[in-house]
């Protein structure tokens, strides 16, 4: 009886969250799943590069640096989004973790983090190998949406735990042409979520 009551309360909390929240939508207008399907992050405009992937930079022994592919025909690597909220889908502006579905073996976990003290400024990395990480969380916010055109523009932000302030995730092009994801006060990288084919079943 007790387990039945607990399960009922869980379903009720999930229903309340689903009924009141505005969810992050993928390119088809479907809610992005919480710790479920994998997605590609693609720029909302063509000829503005490809999807998000990882490379090895500096003294890294494996690819821990999160970048945008310069090739628009490249979808990048699938990622997953996770929220601690009891919701099947990701609400906009909620605290989330973002990570690659298949992280490199050297990573301590699959989730992205922010590393400070780098030439490009605070940069997005995969957890592992860096000590100067910033405590905080990511969130996903809507830039604009046009349901009739299947045009759902989103941006990523990083919020620091200490200050509680949030800044955009944008691009910094380094001397080698790598489009690194960084925390910035400037224009954000505007993206759309595209469900990975292996997750559509």
TrEMBL record:
CDD domains: beta-trefoil_STI_WCI3-like (cd23362). The keyword Coiled coil does not apply. It holds the Pfam family Kunitz_legume. SUPFAM superfamilies: STI-like. Residues 1-21 form the signal peptide. Keywords: Disulfide bond, Signal. InterPro entries: Kunitz_inhibitor_STI-like_sf, Prot_inh_Kunz-lg. It comes from the Eukaryota. The keyword Repeat does not apply. Belongs to the protease inhibitor I3 (leguminous Kunitz-type inhibitor) family. This is Uncharacterized protein. It comes from Flemingia macrophylla.
